[in-house]
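Sample entry was shown:
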Amino acid sequence: GSISALILWPKRDAWKSGSHFKMAVFLGTTFFILFLMHILASLPTDFCVHCFSAYQAFYTTAGFFFILIVFSNGINPSKWRLPILLVALLFFAASLGLYYYQRWGNWLLNNIQVPRVNRIIRGGEFSTTSLKEVLTYTFNLSTELQKRIVPSGAGILLGLILILFLWVIYHFLLQKKSPGRYSLANIVLASCLFIGTVFPSMLRGDATRTDACSTHFLAYYEEAGRTLSSLIPPGSLVYWNGSGRHLAFMLYMKDVKIFPPQIHAGGGYAIGESDHLLKFGLYNQELDKQWRDSADILIIWDTYFTKEVRAFFDQPGYERVPFDMGNLAQCEDELHVFRRTS
């Protein structure tokens, strides 16, 4: 939406007022600067790449109002702007296809059939083979690369089909009934914004989670938080290695001591000198080991409960504390709780 607003930026004399123009410039500048800053803060580094999507929640409102104020003053779909808009929309269609590569990448590779051209040219019978075999044996592409290229191409294809479909409706239906009343750019843009907003939200659900997780999620957390708090004596030194959402359990713990850098939920781990890292709220492997060896209670997220971690807790000096997450177990990953005995 924001990129489209830039491409279709209204002519200067089309703005309803000077304040609207200044507001659009301010909101657009704010949004794109913050967007660039958060890209540089997350994507090029190993600090927290997956945080980029969540970071956008801090400034997305500016982007929404930027889009609204620009489009409320009309658009400028000139002959050269419309092709640029279509190319930009196809780029985002490819991005949308790539985003869901884990959902449909394998299906596309195994179910799209490609004719065996060599056999047909040689006069053989018509036959087909899967797209996966063609990309593997003809183009020597790795499986992981195939899973990303094919969904991106499928996204572009679906984008082209959508644009062609909208053009047919515009040219053969709307233009004949009400010539000049509708703009092809408006129709394409509105349709793509609608699909780009609704379609991802429809696919966001997790089949492994029940409907109760969306209606009673907070109540489940409160119940599990109180249970965990009852297992940890006041004054305990807690080693925390959970996820970002698991941090809500900290709200229910009474008078416990923690190692503050660990509240990054793994994002605070870095390489460097211990004293230097601590000044910035970070930690390294050496500090992690010190904290693990000195803690009274150790809480580990199932994702971090690797073979090496499991072997560590199998040694004498630690015992597992049974933690029943109750109804929350159907919504969240398991937490492993241990107590140091010596």
About this structure: The chain is about 55% helix and 10% strand. The CA atoms of residues 234 and 255 lie 5 Å apart.
